[in-house]
Design brief:
This protein is α/β, with parallel strands linked by helices. The chain is built from five helices and seven strands. The strands form two sheets. The chain has a five-stranded mixed β-sheet, sandwiched between helices. A two-stranded parallel ribbon has the order 3-5. Strand 1 and strand 2 form a beta hairpin. The mean pLDDT is 92.
């Protein structure tokens, strides 16, 4: 299970790399949370600028709801979903409206764009 999703720190960004085709269910979402929380603890509880990459095979509604909830809000400054496909971006926007995350969530089409967006909107030197 955890092999399908790898979470690591790259500069100021927490990268959540999801293997293409992975169905993100509640077990996968809990794995993401545990991995992100471990990094959060190592970094003296500094909220994360998270970038999610990978073409998932599906998303369980309960998992998407959990991903927008209190546990993730406690460790997340902001999150970017990197989605290259217009249909996936549309679906993600619908899910975000339904789940109303407790932190900013952006959608963009590249990792470079995600880094720029988070740096511009969520780092002190660019605010």
């Amino acid at each position: 299970m955890s092999a399908a999703i790898k979470v690591y720190q790259e500069d100021i960004f927490t990268i959540v790399d999801i293997n293409d085709g992975t169905v993100v269910d509640m077990a996968q979402e809990l794995s993401i949370y545990r991995q992100r929380h471990a990094i959060f603890t190592q970094q003296q509880h500094r909220k994360q600028l998270a970038i999610y990459v990978g073409r998932i095979g599906g998303l369980d509604f309960g998992a998407s709801r959990y991903a927008c909830g209190e546990d993730f809000a406690a460790i997340t400054e902001a999150k970017v979903l990197v989605l290259e496909n217009l249909l996936n971006r549309t679906f993600a926007n619908i899910m975000l409206k339904m789940n109303q995350p407790g932190f900013p969530v952006y959608i963009c089409s590249s990792i470079q764009q995600a880094r720029q967006l988070l740096t511009k909107n969520h780092t002190p030197e660019h605010s």
